[in-house]
Input
Amino acid sequence: MADLSSLEELQSAVADAPAADAAPVHEPVRDELGRSYATGKRKDAVARVWIRPGSGKVTVNGKDMNAYFARPVLQMVIGQAFSVAGVAGQFDVMATVKGGGLSGQAGAVKHGISKALTLYEPSLRPALKAAGFLTRDSRVVERKKYGKRKARRSFQFSKR
Output
């Protein structure tokens, strides 16, 4: 009889254990204020991004997004992460950006928003990953070589 009860215990333990091929379940990562934080990077720009549930207000370096990123293309770049995830207008964003130009800063904020969304709601990760928003765009300016005017541009040839 002892063998039968240990067999039943073993079967119940196996039934309760998670399957080896099941995808890991990720827990949301939020601070005491209900925010998620992530760092986004693009070229030389680095963005620190906090998101929390709200009305869709985006603040960059203390200014409204429309004032900081005046070009509509840059505003569209920032909104891409929300539209792909299907949560447009549901989160407030507070970001601080340093380095690079406006285009690189917009890309850094988009990268940070995408990472913060996956931390806030892990079920959004597949859509953002498929769109390529979680991968850091590693293209940076090529360094200048000696004997050249720029990275690859040579001095003008003079025959005489």
